[in-house]
């Protein structure tokens, strides 16, 4: 019977230790795969470092990706690595420009899988017109890397200053770009081998096109944050503490897909705590909320953007009235309220 374990791929079709040894095999892998997928003049100069011309305010970010499984509905570790880093730049109103990529590959990893990952990275880079200009490849013995780990670092010029977690103001509207909890749910389904009757996919996506459109409209955005680990709950609590404000959100207004809601009921999770990889939250003056939603709704990945709450909303509920700065209040459809706490522990490890 043929093995279904990808690490049992025939030797000539798999990554070998020699692919990380600095010799002919490594050179062939880099030229035939990485340079071909990420082709650009800076990368192909083959220097020890990319020489960049940077002027003005820039954003700089880095992240490591160890998601399990490597392939999931709606993406894979490669798409995730690019979208994750590009989105961190976008949330600072920085146009993604230059990225580095470091690959730690386990001996025996199928070359076909590596090619699929790299090609998905190139496709995702094109969305924001960013480029990988330097990188590194290491191969480790079997059992040391669980297949593949990727680290990406990004640099981009800031298009609008002053957007910050410390910038929320009383009266700001809180907007979410799409339904929440998709990535965490998709990873859970893949990891547990669930075959529910749904077409649920991760929301993994590059957010720069939507952010760029918001910036072009000259909206007075006070804060933006992609809701990754810790989900919506983490973002709102971090904002409330950083800006020393209270935030009230309406439970009924928060978009959650039915399959996500069903998984949460099955496992006892809350959708507000689940990870996202293509959803972001923004705060801006209430008077501009309608325009922001109209702009977001033009993008397929923001088609269910919603106005979910306000900063320092005036209410008559005692629990809300007594709330101090740094708290997030979740108000139900029945009028009751509770604090939406910062998530504790790790609901799903290795989701990115």
Automatic annotation (TrEMBL):
List, for all copies, the residue spans of the domain called PurM-like C-terminal.
169-314
PurM-like N-terminal domain location: 47-157
List, alphabetically, the InterPro entries matched.
HypE, PurM-like_C_dom, PurM-like_C_sf, PurM-like_N, PurM-like_N_sf
Query: One Pfam family of this protein, by short name?
Result: AIRS_C
Coiled coil spans: none
- Classification via CDD domains: HypE
Question: Family assignment?
Answer: Belongs to the HypE family.
Could you tell me what this protein is called?
Hydrogenase expression/formation protein HypE
Species whose genome carries this gene? Shewanella submarina
Instruction: Kindly list the organism's lineage.
Output: Bacteria, Pseudomonadati, Pseudomonadota, Gammaproteobacteria, Alteromonadales
């Amino acid at each position: 019977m043929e093995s279904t374990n990808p690490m049992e791929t025939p030797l000539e079709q798999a990554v070998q230790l020699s692919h990380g040894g600095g010799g002919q095999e490594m050179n062939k892998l880099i030229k035939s795969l990485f340079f071909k997928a990420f082709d650009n003049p800076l990368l192909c100069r083959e220097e020890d470092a990319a020489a960049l011309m940077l002027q003005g305010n820039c954003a700089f970010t880095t992240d490591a990706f160890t998601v399990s499984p490597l392939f999931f509905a709606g993406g894979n570790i490669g798409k995730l690595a690019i979208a994750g880093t590009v989105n961190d730049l976008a949330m600072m109103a920085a146009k993604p420009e230059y990225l580095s990529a470091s690959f730690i590959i386990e001996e025996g990893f199928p070359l076909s899988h590596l090619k699929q990952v790299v090609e998905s990275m190139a496709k995702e880079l094109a969305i924001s017109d960013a480029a990988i200009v330097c990188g590194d490849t290491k191969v480790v013995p079997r059992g040391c890397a669980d297949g593949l780990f990727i680290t990406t670092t990004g640099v981009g010029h800031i298009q609008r200053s002053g957007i910050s977690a410390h910038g929320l103001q009383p009266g700001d509207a809180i907007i979410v770009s799409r339904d929440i909890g998709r990535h965490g749910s998709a990873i859970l389904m893949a990891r547990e081998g669930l075959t529910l009757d749904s077409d649920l996919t991760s929301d993994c996506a590059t957010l720069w096109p939507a952010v760029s459109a918001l910036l072009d409209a000259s909206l007075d955005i006070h804060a933006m944050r992609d809701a990754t680990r810790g989900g919506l709950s983490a973002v709102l609590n971090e904002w409330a503490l950083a800006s020393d404000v209270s935030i009230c959100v309406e439970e009924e207004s928060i978009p959650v897909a039915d399959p996500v809601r069903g998984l949460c009921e099955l496992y006892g999770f809350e959708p507000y705590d689940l990870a996202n990889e293509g959803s972001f939250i923004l705060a801006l003056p209430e008077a501009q909320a309608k325009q922001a939603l109209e702009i977001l709704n033009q993008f397929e990945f923001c088609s269910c953007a919603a106005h979910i709450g306000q900063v320092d909303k005036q209410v008559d509920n005692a629990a809300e009235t007594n709330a101090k700065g740094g708290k997030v209040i979740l108000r139900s459809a029945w009028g009751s309220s509770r604090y939406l706490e910062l998530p504790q522990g790790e609901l799903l490890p290795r989701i990115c």
